[in-house]
Design a protein that fits this description.
Layout: E1 6-11, H1 14-27, E2 31-35, H2 39-44, H3 57-69, E3 74-79, H4 99-116, E4 117-123, H5 130-133, H6 144-160, E5 164-166, H7 168-173, H8 188-203
Helix pairs in contact: 1-8, 3-4, 4-6
């Protein structure tokens, strides 16, 4: 029997790794789900962009450039990057990817994504709470003001490029502050709700592929 399901490929950070299994289950009747591999490696240290964890916008751009070189094609791409971009070195106080570079990276990412895939979706970066994230005694900082800036930059690029956006930021923000299992990742029930929200958008989306 011919499989007429469309394929969805996810390129995102550790948040997407967490909601991924639920998303796969919620969309399985209509879509074949796949993502960057080596999830086990990524789960060993969710702060380290390795394997399935796509990292910052420069890393996502490099990955898509490599996919273009290999002439890979997708039906639907789900993209996100931002959490790694706004990491702040607590010694130098430098952002990992400055705002201007983030915008340039996103513009190139979307240009490549449009050539690689028939449909592209952008997923907004999920909230952080400064007092929770930065209470750690070591490691990098993140600040909600930077997250707001980078989400706004992404929104500007997606509107300009006519890319459909799934607003996971505001959906997740509505649950308040008691949803985190650590400094930035979410409890299991929230991961499931995030996946259900994204799946609802995808399952109701009609596209001609």
């Amino acid at each position: 029997m011919k499989n007429n399901k469309r394929s969805i490929f996810v390129i995102g950070d550790s948040i997407s790794i967490h909601y991924g299994p639920y998303l796969k289950a919620f969309i399985q009747e209509k879509f074949n789900y796949d993502r960057r591999r080596e999830i086990g490696e990524a789960l060993k240290n969710l702060d380290k962009p390795i394997g399935a964890n796509a990292g910052d916008s420069s890393m996502v751009l490099k990955y898509l450039q490599e996919e273009m070189d290999k002439q890979v094609k997708y039906d639907i791409l789900l993209l996100n990057c931002g959490l790694h971009d706004i990491r702040v070195d607590r010694n130098t106080l430098e952002l990992q990817i400055k705002a201007e570079q983030y915008k340039r990276n996103l513009e190139e990412i979307i240009d490549l994504a449009k050539r690689l895939s028939k449909e592209v979706f952008w997923i907004t970066t999920t909230p952080i709470i400064d007092k929770i994230h930065n209470s750690r005694k070591e490691g990098f900082w993140r600040f909600s003001k930077d997250l707001d800036t980078y989400n706004a930059i992404a929104e500007e690029v997606m509107i300009k490029e006519n890319i459909k956006t799934i607003d996971l930021y505001n959906f997740t923000k509505g649950f308040g502050e008691k949803v985190y299992c650590d400094h930035v990742h979410f409890k299991e029930d929230i991961r499931k709700l995030q996946a259900e929200y994204i799946a609802g958008y995808l399952n109701n989306f009609k596209c001609n592929l």
